[in-house]
Write a structure and sequence with these properties.
Helix content: 40-55%
Number of strands: 12
Distance between the termini: 48 Å
Strand content: 5-15%
Radius of gyration: 22 Å
Shape: globular
Number of helices: 17
Structural class: alpha/beta
Strand order of the largest sheet: 4-11-10-9-8-7-6-5
Order of helices and strands: HHHHHEEEEHEHEHEHHHHHEHEHEHEHE
């Protein structure tokens, strides 16, 4: 070690470069998020516990959710070096139309629960980014209101089959009239999954004013102010409800749905028909035979049947079964742009992302959703570069494998 000395002021001046904070508190908070995991931590601090757990949690012991994320952790990429990757193209075709990224914002229920801006914020971000957004039957913004808020976004409508078939048919008709290009039929919900976090938190829709929630309001005053000073929190496609989400699902969802319902929708819906919740190659073949244009390999984010198949592990078999006749998408456990790249390399046309943007929504409303989208887009592009490919079209199964 050389002799010690006192630093010169000119040397300190080079090191001391304080940054003036940019924007307001929300901007500064979001600027510190370098990953979706960072947004999740901000969301956990910003939202009431019951709200965060409703978004973050899954069914039963949450084994399916953990396995989905662990599957992505087992991904091993196989890069090529000495390739010119100064410019990469992250765009692709989803349902035959251009998308800036190989992903869509997945349908999520009760989105205004996470932030008062809700689905309209998500739709506006999807519009700016250039990706599709699927509105849920259980959404808190109407079919028509989303179309008005984000007129240029590629709008998909997610449908649960109800016991009241006339009500389901009316929703499909409204979606068609409002310019929705695709119908996403979710088929893994004959009954609700056991959401134990919700039970333990005493979580209801809308949140009830109990001693516990009143105490929580003191810790999260901004969330409660937004709740109480904006439009009443209710499902846009249903009347008001005062119980749990599981109780609502068991009351209105149709446990007797069959492949005949897929065929009937195919006859009445002129747009693209996507079937979400397929978990085996056999079921994928069956729904494509019934008229589906695309399938989503999904276990509902682990929120229905715990110990269900892990989507990333089932993906190659589904692609082999129907990939020459229908587009195949993946849903569940995606928290990084590299996860999206891995799924596409294994045969998916694209991915549906839900929790990732909901963490952003809880962390900072529309700006938080934009931050989530920017993080995912940056990670997709950088992963392509590090793989040595210049476009999504170059992602092939030889680029990735799942370690044992």
């Amino acid at each position: 070690m050389g002799e010690r000395r006192l630093p010169r002021w000119s040397e300190l001046r080079e090191l001391a470069r304080p940054r003036r904070p940019a924007g307001d508190a929300t901007d500064r908070r979001l600027a510190r998020a370098a990953s979706i995991g960072d947004l999740r931590e901000i969301a956990r601090r910003r939202a009431p516990r019951a709200v965060f757990d409703y978004t973050d949690g899954a069914a039963g012991a949450e084994i399916s959710l953990r396995r989905s994320r662990e599957a992505f952790q087992r991904v091993e990429f196989r890069p090529s070096v000495l390739r010119d990757v100064s410019v990469v193209d992250s765009s692709t075709l989803l349902l035959g139309r251009p998308s800036a990224l190989p992903l869509a914002f997945a349908p999520t229920g009760f989105t205004r629960l996470m932030h008062a801006e809700g689905e309209t914020a998500v739709g506006r971000v999807a519009e700016r980014v250039g990706i599709p957004h699927a509105l849920s039957t259980m959404g808190t913004t109407t079919i028509e209101a989303l179309a008005a808020a984000a007129p240029a976004v590629r709008r998909w409508f997610q449908l649960y089959l109800w016991r009241d078939r006339e009500a389901s048919a009316a929703l499909v008709e409204r979606a068609g009239a409002a310019g929705y290009e695709a119908l996403v039929l979710t088929v893994d919900t004959p009954v609700a999954g056991p959401r134990l976090r919700d039970v333990r938190n005493g979580f209801t829709i809308p949140p009830a004013l109990t001693p516990r929630t009143v105490a929580n309001a003191a810790v999260h005053p901004r969330w409660w102010i937004d709740l109480l000073t904006t439009e009443p929190l209710e499902f846009a496609s249903l009347r008001s409800w005062g119980g749990t989400v599981a109780e609502l699902a068991d009351r209105v969802f149709e446990p007797a749905a069959t492949l005949d319902d897929v065929r009937a929708l195919r006859e009445t819906w002129s747009g693209a028909l996507v079937v979400k919740g397929v978990q085996t190659a056999e079921d994928a073949r069956a729904v494509v035979d019934a008229g589906a244009d695309a399938v989503v390999v999904s276990n509902h984010g682990g929120r229905q049947l715990d110990r269900a198949p892990t989507p990333l592990e089932e993906l190659p078999a589904v692609v082999r079964a129907v990939g020459d006749r229908a587009e195949v998408y993946l849903d569940g456990g995606i928290l990084d742009g590299a996860d999206v790249v891995a799924a596409v390399a294994l045969g998916a046309r694209g991915c549906l992302v839900g929790r990732a943007y909901l963490y952003g929504l809880m962390a900072g409303g529309e700006r938080g959703v934009q931050r989530a989208a920017d993080i995912l887009a940056r990670e997709v592009a950088r992963t392509l570069q590090l793989l040595g490919v210049t476009s999504v079209a170059e992602l092939t199964p030889d680029r990735v494998r799942l370690r044992a």
